[in-house]
Amino acid sequence: MDDEVLRAVGPRLRGFRQSLGLSLDELSARSGITASTISRLERGLVRPSLEQLLPLARVYGLPLDELVAAPRVGDPRVHLKPVRKHGLTFIPLGVHVGGIRGFKVIYPPSGVASTVKYNTHPGRGWFYVLSGTVTLALSDERTTLGAGEAAEFATTTPHWIANAHKDRPAEIIALYSVQGERVHVTDI
Predict the structure, then answer these.
(1) Following DSSP, what letter does each residue of the chain receive, concatenated?
(2) Sign of CA dihedral 70, 76, 79, 85
(3) N or C terminus of the chain: which is more exposed, having fewer CB within 10 Å?
(4) Contact in structure between 27 and 58 (CB atoms under 8 Å)
(5) How far apart are CA 168 and CA 185, in angstroms?
């Protein structure tokens, strides 16, 4: 089993780098590991050492066990750490492994929300309304969605989502690509 995990590390490292759109040289500059060493690690020509994995985990913003896909032991629950931004609460629904990531997003009553800000980024947006009612604005077109409804749209279209009610919060489950997460959650 350990050999399987170690064989899979190279392709995982390459996938994380590519999902962030980093070249070998860019990753080298950020991690302090030479581009040739990173290339050999990604191709599985050398086995990674802790001294190599720690700086890569820092660059990717991942715990070491997620970076190498170490088998989980013990409690399988995800320990959710909310992030507050623009008056919203984002709760990650899983660990960050690159690609699409799910969040529960809590919109306060509209009287407390921050100002409207349109966003654009590559990719597609998707969300499902758990409770309450939200307004989705795509350019100048607005759509109101209630609990049990979902929306999908091109995120290259200027967009924003807001709580449609002044007196109660709304909750959605949203899926973000790496670019969407940067814009909406982390501003990396």
Answers:
(1) -HHHHHHHHHHHHHHHHHHTT--HHHHHHHHSS-HHHHHHHHTTSS---HHHHHHHHHHHT--HHHHHTPPP-S--------EEETTEEEEESS---SS-EEEEEEEPPTTT------B--SSEEEEEEEESEEEEEETTEEEEEETT-EEEEETTS-EEEEES-SSS-EEEEEEE-HHHHIIIII--
(2) positive
(3) N
(4) no
(5) 22
CA separation for the pair 63, 82 (Å, rounded): 17
Output the pTM of the full model: 0.57
Each of the 188 residues of the chain gets a pLDDT tens digit; together they read: 577 777 888 888 998 888 888 999 999 999 999 999 999 999 999 988 999 999 998 888 888 877 887 666 666 677 677 888 878 898 888 766 666 778 899 999 886 555 667 888 888 889 999 999 999 999 989 999 999 999 999 889 999 999 999 889 999 999 876 665 555 565 53
Distance of CA 103 to the CA centre of its chain: 8
Distance between CA atoms of 188 and 182, rounded to whole angstroms? 6
Identity at 141, one-letter amino acid code: E
State how far the Cα of 107 lies from the Cα of 87, in Å rounded to an integer. Answer: 8
CB 95 within 8 A of CB 124: no
